[in-house]
Specification:
Elements lengths: L3 E2 L18 E9 L5 E8 L4 E2 L6 E2 L3 E8 L6 E2 L16 E11 L2 E11 L9 E8 L6 E5 L7 E5 L8 E7 L2 E7 L2 H5 L3 H9 L5 E3 L9 E4 L4 E3 L2 E9 L5 E8 L7 E4 L10 H4 L7 E9 L2 E8 L3 E8 H9 L8
Antiparallel strand pairs: 1-23, 2-3, 3-6, 4-5, 6-7, 8-9, 9-10, 10-11, 12-13, 13-14, 14-15, 16-18, 17-18, 18-19, 19-20, 21-22, 22-23
């Protein structure tokens, strides 16, 4: 089964009228607010970056996070300024790939934004850490810093409900996907170095998904925060093959034990085919980051070739049934 691209793609492109998003806009998290609007948090880069002389990526390439809103999930109105900017030592080289989760904690609704905080230049691979921000109104945002210290890590997502009374986060220490649990809000935002040292030393015990198929042989990573369905937590994720082509896959996690994979797509559900996915700053990339369900339809928001924001859809029940009918995944 494949996701269906929307005819309006790309739904967001670089905006020359606003310098901070004039170069590229992509990799967009999504959530439905209390007002019923769809909020898209997207990675934005100003013009002026150039190919690195080392041949790996770009120089002067610093990301911030913008916010756009929509009544229909398709046509978006952008804000005038970024909502997250690289202002701290931990993210001074960029705030990348925001994922957004609506979560009720201790009687309060918070929107939690996990993002990749870069303390070293983009494409160096040296400063990638899991950063966290939050907001209660999707207008005023607060950064909480790095929540997984001393570990090269990214692609973190938080489940939209507590499981067994605990906050659940998926994250990626290459090439696999891991799970970590937090007893409360304080444990999430005030990381204990000793705890994380023990966790890192036993990382295999926390690994729940590994690359299994050729299209994801290089590495995998969580996409949007998982969607709760009757069949399980629906996880859309990305896989990278030996040629660094990025595709999207899907899996189902057990509702009561998200470390247990109960179904997984052997084939990608979306892969680079259109020009806006094949040609851009990083070619041959579809990178899912946001997902919401509206009227039984799954809206998946993804980045195309690190240049634009795109949308693909599927009936959520059909996708979960497809997964349940797929071959059983190998044990993690």
């Amino acid at each position: 089964m494949k996701l269906e691209r929307h005819s309006h793609n790309p739904i967001l492109a670089p905006n020359p009228a606003q310098a901070w998003e004039s170069g590229a806009v992509f990799n967009c998290g999504a959530v439905v607010g209390e007002d019923g609007l769809t909020y898209l948090l997207y990675r934005a880069i100003a013009k002026g970056y150039s190919r690195s002389s080392s041949g790996g990526g770009y120089d002067d390439y610093v990301s911030s996070v913008g916010c756009a809103t929509s009544e229909d999930g398709i046509h978006f109105v952008r804000g005038e300024r970024p909502v997250l900017e690289p202002t701290d030592e931990c993210d001074r080289f960029g705030c990348e790939d925001p994922r957004v989760t609506r979560l009720e904690i201790q009687g309060r609704v918070r929107y939690l934004i996990t993002y990749t905080a870069l303390s070293a230049p983009a494409f160096s691979g040296l400063g990638d850490r899991v950063g966290l921000a939050s907001t209660e109104d999707l207008r005023t945002f607060r950064k909480h810093g790095v929540v997984i210290p001393a570990q090269k890590d990214k692609d973190a997502v938080i489940l939209p409900e507590l499981v067994g009374g605990r906050i659940v986060m998926l994250h990626r220490v290459e090439p696999n996907i891991q799970v970590v649990y937090f007893d409360d809000w304080e444990q999430l935002v005030e990381p204990d170095q000793d705890r994380w040292s023990r966790y890192s030393a036993s990382i295999e015990e926390h690994t729940i998904m590994r690359p299994e198929y050729e299209w994801e042989a290089n590495k995998i990573g969580a996409g949007p925060p998982p969607i709760k369905t009757n069949a399980g937590w629906l996880l859309i994720y990305h896989g990278v093959d030996a040629n660094y082509v990025y595709r999207a896959g899907a899996a189902l996690l057990d509702l009561e034990d998200p470390s247990r994979i109960i179904a997984r797509s052997p084939q990608p559900i979306l892969e680079p085919e259109k020009e806006y996915e094949r040609i851009g700053d990083v070619p041959n990339v579809v990178f899912p980051v946001g997902a919401v369900v509206q009227g039984g339809t799954l809206y998946v928001y993804y980045g195309g070739a690190d240049k634009c924001c795109c949308l693909a859809t599927a009936p959520v029940d059909e996708l979960t049934q497809h997964l349940l009918e797929s071959p059983r995944p190998a044990a993690a």
